[in-house]
Request: fold
Amino acid sequence: MTTVSLRSLTKSFGGPPVVDKVSLDIRDGEFVSLLGPSGCGKTTTLKLVAGFEWADSGTIQFDGQDVGSLPAEKRDIGMVFQSYALFPHLTVAQNLAFGLETRKTPRSEITRRSAAAMDTVQLAGLGDRYPRQLSGGQQQRVALARALVIEPRILLLDEPLANLDARLRDEMRDFIRQLQRRVGITTVYVTHDQAEALTMSDRVVVMFSGTVAQVGAPDDIYERPVSRAVAEFVGRVNRIPATVVATGPGSCRVRTYLGEVTLQQSTSAAVGHSVDVTLRPEAITLVAAPAEPGAARVVSASYGGGLIDYRVEVATGQTLHVQAFAATRLAVGTAVRLDIRNDSYWLLGSPP
Amino acid sequence: MPVLRRANSPMLLFLPALLVLAVFLLVPYLNILVMSFRTPGQGIPYAPGWTFGNYTKFFSDWFFIGQMANTLWIGFATTLACLLIGYPVALQLARGSDRLRGLRYGIVLTPLLVGVVIRSYGWTILLGNNGVINRTLIGWGLIDGPLPLMYNGLGIIIALTHVLLPFMILPVMGAIQGIDPALGLAARSLGAGRSTVFRRVTLPLSLPGVQAGCILVFVLSVSAYVTPALIGGLRVKTVAVSVVDALIDTFQWPFGSAMALILSVVGGLCVLAFARATRMKWAAAR
Reply:
């Protein structure tokens, strides 16, 4: 249906740029998340794509056609807002009809398409209700149906799950993803929740202070972060200082307080230089080892249902986060051995 | 738990207001109600005995009924004028975010900052046959004789519109400010241009404010005394002016009381009918 292409998109509101030379190509039917902390420019980027804000410079193309000078109402977009933004004075059916009416769709077709859209979001029969008579989850689905019933070129979602409670959020996450796959619409999704971004997206765009830090598939972002900032924003991570002891094509060897490891990554850092490697908390397996000399020790454990978060102090004094299944539980003070697979380490660019 | 229970009894919070209302509204109203059934006296406020005569006197005399019609007409016209002039101002004030907003807000409130007597005299200077407006127009040769701007309904409507505008602007502005800005964006994402957004989103959602503003302006203009008295003079009298005449000048306490009550009831019925006719289903839906 539609590809989206952003080229050096820049926007400032009088101060430093909020969106700074953002370039991005989104494939037809792709689900792309803009992920970042608040104030990183992800929502402004979405507003630029929607046409609610004008870019200072750069271009926005849909299917290779420049839309940068079109106002939002001419861009043929569907948008879902964090507040849902349902028209409170219109019934559900009237909300759905709104976008079709502005397109001068014949009445009979409006009725047919609205009914079909209500079916799609499993709200058939609620057409006569006013938005405030619906639950949060139902309002959310009306907002989705209203955005999709006009069959827009792209679907834009601005933190649509932020106002829902945790359980409903998981449910809606799956619902939106399945619906998007079924409709096959190109989708841009803004969120500050890394779990949402990782589970829903084909690709994730991590943004910090107006710029794109990394673009990649969810597993790229999580397992192969390009920078410490990305690694630390997307999930929990142990950052371990290391020294390069050997380099080679496509691999290198570093020494850390956990021992020496060979990594299947090349590095520009020379032998003897300091680098950072990361280790995800769930990549470490704890094995009780009471008799072992130089063993690590559990210093805290917080129970989280299926998973337990441990803090472990190694013999040399550093502490590591470890996440493990709650099936085997280790008491605070237990002496443990750390089992870590070599490919769990990830080398970040050399620190400045 | 006791703390919760105390917070859960809102009646307690209403109590001071209820007391004030009872002492200063209910008791005087009852007093007027009783007075309106007393027999008129000669040279004294009222005579012993009871009668319905004060009410039949009002409703059997076209003079008084005409006065009531005139009063209501002034109320409707003032409300309409305030709505037409005030709505665009409210829209501007609600949407503007520049530094001059405080100033514009202040300008809206200025009519309320001037005492009612001074303000009304000010209008007589402007509107009189020999007033600023007529003299200027005659001086420019635009008219031959003075336009009748005073001692008629038009003058009262102009002066009331001036002072009551804030009572229209503020509630409408509040309603517009209460509209989630995302609704406008949502409408635009659905293909609505500026005028469609206004017609289908902003305007209908501002109606609760319009309703409140209309009721306020109508009630205040129907019950206004000083402005109609000074601008209407002896020629145009509203019911409120006649009530004061009866109570103070001609010493007819029972008839004045009856007129005051009739005005309250008729005004109240108008408000009730208006509120019913403009009831917003969506605002009540829960």
Chain B has 14 helices and two strands. The longest strand of chain B covers residues 46-50. Residues 73-285 of chain B form a domain with the MetI-like fold fold (CATH 1.10.3720.10).
